[in-house]
Each structure stands twice: as C-alpha cells, then as structure tokens.
UniProtKB/TrEMBL annotation:
Protein name: Phosphoribosylglycinamide formyltransferase
Organism, scientific name: Mesorhizobium shonense
Pathway involvement of the protein, from the record: Purine metabolism; IMP biosynthesis via de novo pathway; N(2)-formyl-N(1)-(5-phospho-D-ribosyl)glycinamide from N(1)-(5-phospho-D-ribosyl)glycinamide (10-formyl THF route): step 1/1
Positions of the catalytic residues: H111 (proton donor)
Top-level division of the source organism's lineage: Bacteria
Reactions catalysed according to its record: N(1)-(5-phospho-beta-D-ribosyl)glycinamide + (6R)-10-formyltetrahydrofolate = N(2)-formyl-N(1)-(5-phospho-beta-D-ribosyl)glycinamide + (6S)-5,6,7,8-tetrahydrofolate + H(+)
Family listed: Belongs to the GART family.
Gene name of the encoded protein: purN
Amino acid sequence: MSRKRTVVLISGRGSNMTALIAAASDPTYPAEIVGVISDRANAAGLGIAQSRGIATKVIQRADHPSKDAYDAAIDAALAGFGAEIVALAGYMRILGRGLVEKWQGRMINIHPALLPAFKGLDTHARAIRAGVRIHGCSVHFVTPEMDDGPIIAQAAVPVMVGDNEDTLAARVLKVEHRLYPLALGLVAEGKARMEKGHTVFAHFADDADNATSVVMAPDPLREETDLEQLARITP
Ligand code: GRF
C-alpha cells in the first residue's frame, strides 16, 4: 500500500496536526505527514512538527504582494512536498477559489461544530448562546465557500448544564483528535471521496471488525435501546 503524502496547514497550537502525526506514525496508516505549512512564524505547532522530524515551512501573507501570489506560494510549497492530500488544521486563512478548486477532493478541513450549523468563528460560544444540547465537530472537503464543503465525518458531544466556552471547547477538542485521523484515513484509503459536490463512501460491510467501521457506527448505536439512551441527552 502506498501511503498518501499529506501536508498539514496550521496557524497556531497544532493539536489536530499532532493527532494526525501520531496516527501516521503507525506504518499501516494510509497517510504519511510529509510537511507542515504555517502562515504564522510563531505557530506553536511548528516546533511540535520539527520535534517529530517533519519538515516545516512558514508562508506569511505579509511577505506576498497579493492574495494570488500568496496562494501560488502555498501551491508551490505543496508541490515541493509532493503533496497528494492537504489537511487544514486550525489554519485561519481562506484560500482562493483557484487553489481550492485545483485541490478539490484532496483538501480537507476540521471545523469545531456540527456543520452546517455554526460556520465561521467562535463556534463554542455561539453554540452555548443558541442553547443547543448537542455540539461537536466536522471534517469536510474544502470548497471555495468557507466551512461549506461536503461532510466526511462528524462527532457529537453533549452540551452540559454549566458549560462555558472553554469547557465545551475542551470536550469538542478531545473528539476532534479522534475524528480527524479517522477522516483523513478514509480519504487516503479512497473510502470517502468527493463526487459532484457530495461525499461518497465506499462499502464498509466487508470489514465490520475493523476499527474504522467501529468508529463509523459506534457500538452503542447498534442497539435500539442505546439509541433511546442517546436521545435522553436531550431533556
Ligand atoms: C480546532 O478547534 C479546529 O477545529 C479549528 O481550530 C482549532 C485548532 O486547534 N479549526 P489546533 O491548532 O488543532 O490545536
């Protein structure tokens, strides 16, 4: 099996990037992380990537005369890494249509909300204000509209009484770190792919014991009674 060469784009902390690097340290994982690009020179994730022996590159918008020139620099760096898949992980810029369309179906992003709800920033504060009882995160293919591409995988967490933005963010982040490696794995293996604006899944029935399918259909959801239990999260 050839592992898909994956480049991660970050802007800051890099905890999702770290989760992807950890997953890819297993030689049987279908993607390898071959480079990390940050638009900020002081992103904490850069040091983490370097300490894991991964090549990094800083490409700052301010160093480029136009948005197009910036996008071209990103594209050139991706080519330099021989990227086959691009994973945005806390990358805070919106890439231009040309670049996104070029990478369509091969560029994915993690968003800290259950899309299509709460696109954009401050998702956790907005979820609390909206009074939703269930929140979570989504991994989706990137399309030119922000946080709008076809969903590959989602994970839900309850919003607890007394939650604030930080406690909720921490609960979501934990599941982000499980979800993103799962979703990248699906894309790298060709089990999830983008077709005509939708995510198409390959058949999972033949590997029911495989960890991927277990996460796709978590054990509790295999029984009707457990579905009822889940419904009780919503009073
Ligand atoms: C994560 O919550 C991610 O979903 C969002 O930005 C945050 C980045 O965190 N897009 P980290 O840099 O991966 O730690």
